[in-house]
Amino acid sequence: MSARKPLMAGNWKMFKTPAQTAEFFEKFLPLVSASTHADVLICPPFVDLAAAVSAAAGSNVAVGAQNCFWETKEGAFTGEVSAPMIKAAGCSAVIIGHSERRQFFGETDATVLKRTQAALASGLLPVVCVGERLEERESGKTEDVLRTQFTDGIAPLSADDFAKIVIAYEPVWAIGTGKVATPEMAADAHRCLRSLVEAKYGKDAAQAVRILYGGSVKPDNVKGLMAQVDIDGSLVGGASLDPVGFASIVNF
Ligand code: 13P
What we know:
Blueprint: E1 7-11, H1 18-32, E2 39-43, H2 49-56, E3 61-65, H3 83-88, E4 93-96, H4 99-104, H5 109-121, E5 125-130, H6 134-138, H7 142-153, H8 159-162, E6 166-169, H9 183-201, H10 203-208, E7 211-214, H11 222-226, E8 233-236, H12 243-250
Parallel strand pairs: 1-2, 1-8, 2-3, 3-4, 4-5, 5-6, 6-7, 7-8
Helix pairs in contact: 1-2, 1-12, 5-7, 7-9
Bound molecules: 1,3-dihydroxyacetonephosphate.
């Protein structure tokens, strides 16, 4: 067993209204109130953050956003939300560089880095996502892709900043497809990421950083994934929308 405390995180993507958010927490909180073995985080859409923060107040469940802008000062950036605003709304974390942002919204390793720095400057925990696409895996490029995403999107962070992030490995081909990476495939990618961390930041940093797995995590496959020494938690999409199902993932 490693000393790293697991982080079980739900990414709701573009699902749920504020009323549905309140309903979720009412059912979810009692099911995880005794779950001290892991940190628990829910990341709803922006419009649901207030409802989530108020419902989660005083509980062991943290609330995070799914993205933040890289400019930390307020300004004329229509449609964007800053990290200080997210922090002021009562959140403690933010997902950065999710593959859906990379795929649909022009997110690059360079913008991932800037958003991560903004999140850190605002006292938020960035959950920085990396992962290869199907054609990249099939052509044997998984490790190259992870190396580039790490080198350009994460490694420019100072050692102090790096110590305050979480990495999420999400193979794009496993997201929302029901095709989960086998625990061994995930473990290989996690080992690769941890060795990149070690080369850049040293052994202690590599042992300390939490690396989550995401991609079709469900109540019936979470245990096998979490049994891998290098997997320190999950970033769960679809299966985090149901309070009972997500609680059983949290309590793997
Ligand atoms: P699914 O769990 O729906 O495959 O989504 C994973 C994900 O993208 C979490 O960020």
